[in-house]
Amino acid sequence: VPVRSVENDRVFSRLTYADDYNGGALYTEYIEPLVSHLRHPLAGCVKKDSFSGTFGRKEDRLMVFTRSYVLPRPDLFHFSPESRSFLFDAGASSWKTGAGGPSLSILDDLWSRHGINFDKIEAWEGATSEKDFYSSLPSVHKDRVWYHQAWISSDPNEHDPSKPFIPGVIRNSTTKDDYVFFKLDIDSKSVETGTVDYLLSGNNSDIEYIDEFAWEHHIRQNYIMAARGWCPGGCDYEKSSLDSYNYFLELRRRGVR
Predict the structure, then answer these.
(1) Which helix (H) or strand (E) is 62 found in, with range?
(2) N or C: at which end does the chain have fewer Cβ atoms within 10 angstroms?
(3) Same domain assignment for residues 1 and 88
(4) Residues 83 and 26 in one domain
C-alpha cells in the first residue's frame, strides 16, 4: 500500500473517512484514479510480441489482465471489533482458473496479505456445476466458501435461489457494520448495469451494505476491450468512458471503494 506523500497525492485518488470507532478521527485512503481505460496504466502500451516466447504471452496480455494496480483497503481498524468480512463474487467459475486469471484465489490471497481475511465467500456462475467448482477448491477453504450454479438477476422482484438478486442476498446476509466486497463480472451488460443502476437509484439502502465494489463496465468505446474482440456481444454501444467514470465517481461519493 503506498504511503501518504505529496507525490502519491498527485498520482492516486483519495477517500477520506471519519472513524466512528475512534472518536470520529479523519483518515485518508488511496484508491485507483479514474483515468484512461480503467486498467493497469501500461495496458495497451506494450508491443505486440514483448511477452511471447519464454513467457508464453501474446500481445500485452500481462498488463491487460494484471491486478497489480488494485489498491486494497489498508486495514479494517475503523470497523467494529464484531464486524465480519464477506466476499460476494458474481461470475466465478473456478477457485484458481479463469479467462483473465482467477478472481477468487487472487482476491482472497491479496486481501489476506493486507490483513483482511474473509469469514465467508459466496460465488455464483451459471455455466459451471457445483461439482466442478468444488473440485477446484482447496480443502483448507471449504468451510468458508459457498458456490451456486445460477445466473443472477438485476431485478429484486425476480429474486429466488435459481436466479438471485445479489444486493438482496448481501442485505439479508450481512449488517452495515460488516466489511463487504462485491465483485460483479458476468459479461452481461443489461444485468451488470441494471444492478449498478439499482444500487445508485436512491430508492433503496442496499448500497450501504457494500464497502468495496469491483466491476468491469463493458463499453464499445473502451479501446482495450474493442481492440481485443470483446465486443459487440457483451459491450454497451450507447455508453462511453465518461459514463464509466461517472458510475465509479458516484459509487465513491456514496462511500464505496
Answers:
(1) helix 61-65
(2) N
(3) no
(4) no
CA atoms of 244 and 210, how far apart (whole Å):
19
Question: What is the identity of the amino acid at 38?
Answer: L
In degrees, to the nearest 5, what angle opens at C-alpha 215 toward C-alphas 73 and 241? 110
CB 69 within 8 A of CB 101: no
Answer whether residue 61 is part of any domain.
Answer: no
Beta-bridge mates of residue 148: 124
Asked whether the whole model's pTM tops 0.85, one would answer: yes
Half-sphere exposure of residue 126, counting CA atoms within 13 Å on the CB side?
A: 10
CB-CB contact of 251 with 213 (8 Å): yes
Distance of alpha carbon 146 from alpha carbon 170, whole angstroms: 14
130: enclosing H helix or E strand: helix 130-135
Single-letter residue type at 11? V
pLDDT, tens digit (0-9, with 9 covering 90-100), for 8-52: 888 888 888 777 777 778 888 888 888 888 888 888 776 655 545
Closest to 58 measured CA to CA, from 49, 67, 68, 46: 49
